[in-house]
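Narrative progress, year one. The postdoctoral researcher (J.K.) led the effort to move from monomer predictions toward full complexes, under supervision of the PI. The following entry was the first complex the group processed end to end, covering 455 residues in total.
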Amino acid sequence: MSLEKTKNPWVTLLGATLFIAMSVNLYLIFQFAPTERSMGHVQRIFYFHVPSAWVAFLAFGVVFVASILYLWKRDRKYNMVANSAAEIGVMFATLVLVTGPIWARPVWNTWWEWTPRLTLFLILWFIYIAYLMLRQFVDNEERSARFCAVFGIFGFVDVPIVYMSIRLWRDIHPSPVIAGGESSGMHPDIRVTFFFSLFVFTLLFIFMLIQRLRLEKSVVAVSDLKKEAALAA
Amino acid sequence: MSKIAAILWKDLLSEFRSKEMVISMMVFSLMVAVIFNFSFPPGSEFIKDAASGILWMTFIFASLLGMGRSFVYEVDKGCMQGLMLAPVDRIVIYVAKLLLNLIFILIVESITLPLFSIFFKLDIWTDLGAIALVIFVSSLGFAVIGTLFSAIAVNTKTREVMLPILHFPISIPVIICAVQATSAIFQGEAWSVIWGWTRLIIMFDVVFFIVAFWTFEFIIEE
């Protein structure tokens, strides 16, 4: 694989758009959106928290699809996509797990509660941490790609089953009464801000995936060059 | 079918001669049970509620210990090439190893369970059928993913550590359901409650058997 052209005008354009959109998003979140009556300013974290969760799911979905495609077509690029998406997914999942407790402490009066969604996210985080570790601990590139593809499929297939079992688990145990949260009627301005934030985060994901892929390509190109040099010597 | 039996028989025979795996899994699981006992104040009433959790932690640790070894001999002694050169589908190797692991796990569990009931003063005999069913389907679930992951883990740098790291997050549905089903049995709950949990475990077994069936050949090719 040769080193590809590093400058792509579309990517630069996407980056510029993203910069503007994120600035607008910050304005919407901190100025435009009304302060929630009962929760106060801390509710604004919701505009970061939920889009991060969405991006994490999206990223893990990309890992799943790319893993299937890799096993099917055996093209290195699907492995690169899966690896890049997994890293980004873990980062956003970490953001979800960090922003959640910051919100929960004043609102639920506890840092952590074993609700189905929280538990699911924690398990999801563990699955993809394991995925990244597996990638680190296999020496051979082709082999690590195969193993990770298989594990990426297992991880994603597991998600609905994990969710069902946690739901059943919480339904049987008496759970403390928890505010309905985001499902209860949203103020129109809150809704606009929320959906804009969702859009911006999705754009951010696409941008990061492209950048991470470019990095991955360089890494692969360097390692190929090293192998060639070692063979020539 | 006879091919599966042939591979299974070879492994059972070598285990029967050394008895290494079953004995170490046995001793290990009993020790785990005893050590968990010390994590509660003596004579504590909590232990009754926690018993099914302790039981399953014991089983899971012992299963992982056993399954972790299932491909080590093959790879270290170079038998894997021989096995792969044999004129059988790759999936036959998977099913044979799966059955082997399942047999080991069930042997260890069936010896640990009565001892466990003595240590923790639990009545396992009235609902033995239900307990046996839950144990069987859960162990099958552990073995279905454990056999595949151990074939992965044996090729990584940190073999023994990698298997639980891969296995635990994926097997969480089985762990939750098995603990809840067993605790429902110990508390004498209705069959419908127990079945609600067992059903999910069976679903897990079926789904992951299909996924493993399809992906195993990608693990051991080369």
